[in-house]
From TrEMBL:
Protein name, as recorded: Dihydroxyacetone kinase family protein
Molecular function in Gene Ontology: kinase activity
Lineage: Bacteria, Bacillati, Actinomycetota, Actinomycetes, Glycomycetales
UniProt keyword terms in alphabetical order: ATP-binding, Kinase, Nucleotide-binding, Transferase
Residue ranges annotated for the DhaL domain, each copy included: 362-564
Pfam families xrefs: Dak1 (PF02733), Dak2 (PF02734)
Amino acid sequence: MTRLFNDPAAFADEMIEGFAAASAAWVQPVPGGVVRSTRAAEPTVALVIGGGSGHYPAFGGLVGAGLAHGAAMGNLFASPSAQQVHSVAKTADQGRGVLLSYGNYAGDVLHFDQAQARLIAEGHDVRTVVVTDDIWSAPSDRKEQRRGIAGDLAVFKIAGAAAAAGYDLDGVERVARHANERTRSFGVAFTGCTLPGARAPLFEVPPGKMAVGLGIHGEPGIDVVDVPTADELAALFVEGLLKEAPAGAGTRVVPLLNGLGGVKYEELFVVYRAVRRLLAERGLHVVEPEVGELCTSFDMAGCSLTLLWLDDELERLWAAPADAPAYRKGAVPQQERVDVPTQAEADAAIASGSAESQRTAALVGIALDAMVDAIDTAADELGRLDSIAGDGDHGIGMRRGVHAGRDAAQAAIAAGAGAGTTLTACADAWSDKAGGTSGAIWAAMLRELGASLGDDAAPTRTDVAQGCSRARDAVMAFGKAQVGDKTMVDAIVPFADTLTAGVARGDTLTEAWSQAALAAQTAADRTADLAASLGRARSHGDRSIGTPDPGAISFALLTRTVEAVLTESQEQPCSGA
Ligand SMILES: Nc1ncnc2c1ncn2[C@@H]1O[C@H](COP(=O)(O)OP(=O)(O)O)[C@@H](O)[C@H]1O
Ligand SMILES: O=C(COP(=O)(O)O)[C@@H](O)CO
């Protein structure tokens, strides 16, 4: 149970504020996360890490000399937004390039990739290495699909040490990739975890049982067994990981025995005692192990064992000194304290729209108010749906996104924006505050709709239909989901197609939209019959059958909400053909 919080929606922001205040010797807050408050004598490649909150010391606790230069810190169990990653990486870059590194989750990949593209367009040299250490999250012939868990630390430590040693960006990327290839983790859990303010745990492990291979957000593993003794657990870990040993990996290994939040250090030491003995019996030599909390999952009782197989270069980098709020080793060279300018990105000037476009923008504002009310009402249910096959944060993410989007849109409308600029402002704020997969997807849709409506002429119903078709195409190109994968796309495609067909037939926008919203709802409901194959729910396989996809359900809800606004509108909206 997470007991101490104020407003649950503000938990991540308040946590980050407190963390930065308590860790000022190492980090300073910047928009989107934290960067180092110290600087080495010479500029180096910058290592920027990140992920959702709820996993401390991942990720902010690993920012400091010899480790990361910055961390983008997202909402609870939700990836940071592209804006957050961009802000942190831009601030951290010392002119020698940036390596982005994070655990392999759908939302993180979408947002980090967007940030990387933007940074490259601005002239930064940026590479990415995703961490894929969790052996139970995909079979060995699809290693690239595996999740990142406590092995994050192994990869970050190697990359950070290489940067500190003066490697160029090619070199830092190379060793980080090499470390990831030689890192394997195996996790177990005895209980679920409860997000702040939630009435029930995100998932449960039956009393007296242990979930084997369960991920750090409750993603299912491979088995549920009786809780073993500490020695039996150590044997399970060691045998499981050694079966997955990288080819030609040698005999020198770093074990990381990680507590996931609700297991005592003392219990971990009892397990470690047997881990060490078993590794020695298998002819492996242990190098500088770690036992403790390295990547947690709120109050989840569980632990994981990671093995990093060393070669000479990796061993030298693993042994190098580091000094971060939650990870210290050896003595780092004296660092200069710096005060990084932390100005938020300047708000883009709002261009005035034509009077006709401003009228459409006002209608967009009314629709967004209604969308806020709809999501506020549905948030708990969306969270419940997401907790069956996902990480339970869909309601939280949608609330953060739609509130921020509405507020930004209202500010744009007050500044005289047309419909296009209003929707773009909404998209940027939605993605920034929500993070996660749905934040990236909703932002992509709103941007495309805004581009179709523009700021000049009064948008026609064809403009709206084209905007929705562009949104559909953008989401499918960006997230790579097809109809039938059990995602929002299952509702977006019939919505956009039905709207386009209705408008082409000569229906009014309201008539065509009503048909389209009905098609979206029907398709969203039917996702209950499917097994998820993409996004976080992918790893839940058949467990998602019987429950509709939360993103499809929230999409359908919002299209029905807009339908009500169009129906109640005094004049026929977008009446031109
Ligand atoms: N590749 C994808 N394309 C489109 N939608 C996706 C994709 N992957 C996941 N989704 C949608 O995102 C929803 C989850 O949103 P959110 O709760 O923000 O995700 P997460 O916390 O998993 O990042 C899913 O229910 C699904 O509808
Ligand atoms: O949950 C996390 C991010 O993944 P999403 O795909 O956005 O849910 C996070 O905790 C790990 O970065």
